[in-house]
Amino acid sequence: MSCRVIHNNEVILNEAHTNNYIFIIDRVPTSFLVSKFSNSDLVRVGADITNISDPEAIREMNNDVMNMALYLSSFTLPDLNVDITDIANQFASMPIVTGKLNYSPLQTNFMNDENYFIWRFFFYWLVAHHNPQEYNKRLAVQHHQDFQVNGYLIVLDNHREKVLEIKFEDLMPQAMGSVDFKDSEAEKVIIPITWKFSNFVPTNDMVVKRV
Description:
It is a single chain. This protein has 5 helices and 11 strands; from the N terminus they run E-E-H-H-H-E-E-E-E-H-H-E-E-E-E-E. By secondary structure, the chain is an alpha+beta fold. It has one domain: Hcp1-like (Pnp Oxidase, Chain A, Roll), CATH 2.30.110. The strands form 3 sheets. It has a 6-stranded antiparallel β-barrel. It has a two-stranded parallel ribbon with strand order 1-11. It has a two-stranded antiparallel sheet with strand order 4-5. The chain starts with 9 loop residues before the first strand and ends with a strand.
């Protein structure tokens, strides 16, 4: 079974939120992941997509969560460097670029919701793409198609206008950091996520609409 995914380029921004950092995931990776948030019949399915008896429900859920918007408390843009080799000559060594572009991981800190949907979302994403039930039975291209997405980091100014948008390609979470809980202080619960990706580039693909 395959799901027909419809992408759009609009981000509906709730005016009640005052966050200036928004992270957009352009699709939810795999029906296996989506099934964890559906009814009890689908929660009990295994890693094999053929175990799901209601594919239309999965298609509907996939369409409901297109361009999933997550709010950030902070983030760290990756550093960028190139491989360089010094070539000796008669007078001095000359540096030339001999390799490829290298990126450090993307570091993000997401604000959790009161139902802990976001924590569970990342938990199941990590478990699903590790695929413990069918370990080593997926081809690399299958893993890429099912679990790697495009992500858009959007920075807004205090007037809620977009000032920066960065697209991350072939994005997937590598680690979910520890989450601190305190009942002595009224603090937000922050979820640290480390991402791996193949490339990032400034874009202007997303349209921010306020409601």
